Automatic annotation (TrEMBL):
Origin organism lineage: Bacteria, Pseudomonadati, Pseudomonadota, Alphaproteobacteria, Rhodobacterales
Protein name, entry field: SDR family oxidoreductase
Single annotated GO MF: aldehyde dehydrogenase (NAD+) activity
Gene3D superfamilies noted in UniProt: NAD(P)-binding Rossmann-like Domain
Native organism: Sulfitobacter sabulilitoris
Stored InterPro entries: NAD(P)-bd_dom_sf, NAD(P)-dependent_oxidoreduct
GO cellular component terms, A-Z: cytoplasm
Length: 284
């Protein structure tokens, strides 16, 4: 029997999951708002569905699994706002629903460790919106929900190499600042493992083993490229967008023990050095 995944907001991480599932015989239906993106999605073997604009009922009826990559908006979770009755109707026959959240829900911990049991105390508006969205999805009756809290995502096309190469990279220095991150291929393998071992109600942190200051990552990218170390700029003096500056409002190290213990994950890229080295042939 062919398994079917409905990928709501079929984007960067979901595309890598599809690359794992399609060779296994999965049918993937991926939603997008854009006709141009729909054509791109179709080239990957995923069935595109322009949504909003098309009824989700048939896709939900065909799916046994649903991945939600759509983030909350100013008025809450847009998927539930537009399709909650359909999702509630589909809940009894769904085996797995995955919601991609963020480690931003934990808030600032001054560089200390957090895990899945840490209280949710975000300090940014984006983090607060994610906490509300997680709660909204938990509130759908009978839904086999799995929440995946993602650290900073990097991978082919998303990394420091472009900025280093074009000379715009800077090493922003904020003492004590540390971030966790996760390679997109490791996101995909975690999601695939969870699909094979559904555990409704589960929450997983997705990050690598090596939280690190952001300036170290930029510096290592320059080293790999054989280019000069980008200039160091104090956080207080840096010309940054409000969005970029908000990322520095919280500092924490995220534990990933649960994906290893419950899902048997062996990270392909357990630290940014291995991840960047692999990207050298893809991004440069």
């Amino acid at each position: 029997m062919t398994r079917t995944l409905l990928s709501l907001g079929h984007g960067y991480s979901a595309r890598y999951l599809a690359e794992l599932l399609i060779p296994q015989g999965w049918r993937i239906i991926g939603t997008t708002r854009s006709a141009d993106k729909a054509r791109d999605i179709a080239k990957t073997g995923v069935e595109p569905l322009i949504w909003p604009g098309t009824d989700l009922g048939d896709a939900l009826a065909a799916a046994d699994s649903v991945l939600v990559s759509v983030g909350p908006g100013p008025d809450g979770d847009p998927v539930l706002a537009q399709a909650r009755p359909l999702i509630e109707a589909a809940a009894p026959h769904l085996r797995w629903v995955g919601y991609l959240s963020t480690t931003g829900v934990y808030g600032d911990h001054g560089g200390d460790w957090v895990d899945e049991n840490t209280a949710l105390e975000p300090s940014t508006e984006r983090g607060k919106a994610r906490v509300a969205a997680e709660a909204a999805w938990r509130g759908v009756p009978g839904l086999p929900l799995h929440i995946f809290r993602l650290a900073g995502i990097y991978g082919p096309g998303r990394g420091p190499f472009a900025k280093v190469l074009n000379g715009t990279a800077r090493r922003i220095i904020k003492p004590g600042q540390v971030f966790s991150r996760i390679h997109v291929e490791d996101i995909a393998q975690v999601l695939a493992a969870s699909l094979d071992r559904p555990n409704p109600g589960a929450v997983y942190n997705l990050c690598d083993d090596d939280p690190a200051p952001p300036q170290d990552v930029i510096g290592h990218a320059a080293e790999l490229l054989g280019m000069p170390l980008p200039p160091a700029v104090a956080f207080e003096d840096a010309d940054m967008s409000p969005m970029a500056r908000s990322f520095y409002a919280e500092s924490k190290k995220v534990r990933n023990d649960l994906i290893k213990q419950e899902l048997g994950i062996d990270l392909r890229y357990p630290d940014y050095r291995k991840g960047l080295r692999a990207m050298m042939t893809q991004d440069t």
